[in-house]
Design brief:
This protein is α+β, with helices and mostly antiparallel strands. It contains three helices and 13 strands. A hairpin with a 2-residue loop joins strand 12 (122-128) and strand 13.
Length: 180
Amino acid sequence: MAEPAEAASLGAAQQFLTFQLGQRLYALPASDVAEVIRIPTFARVPQAPAALLGLANLRGEVVPVASLRGLMGETGGVAADGRAIVVNHGGALALAVDRVEALVTRTEGASEAFATEGGELLTGAFETDKGVAKVLDLASLLASAFVARPAGRRATEAVAKHRAIETEAALESGRRLVSF
């Protein structure tokens, strides 16, 4: 267990979708959720980050399917009867979770402290009839799992090698190349 963090004030009436991952209860703001579906059939992507399960076709739109466990740095598969929460985060993204619980309306935030577990990035927590629901900081979880990297050195070297071969072939054939 990590150090306790102060619960964030959740403000006036807000709705949250609560769901489970193992024995833990989490929540996302309902305004971020587009829909809840069965985990779709997805195609794996070679050399993708561990949290990315693959890409799925959702009514003609290609949607990445991410494992919430993977986003939090955990290992483990996807529950056979699990669900996917489709969120709007710079486009549609499906998050695989074990079970969706309920849509909860909160009129006030929690005032007690809560403890974070490994890999959790949270914005707050509140009490429900099933226990404390921790509100995930989805933007931070996604940013830490899917780090934008510059073009790899391999790709740059391959392009340079290809250009050198083209130039050498052109010189041998007597052609002149002009590049802009």
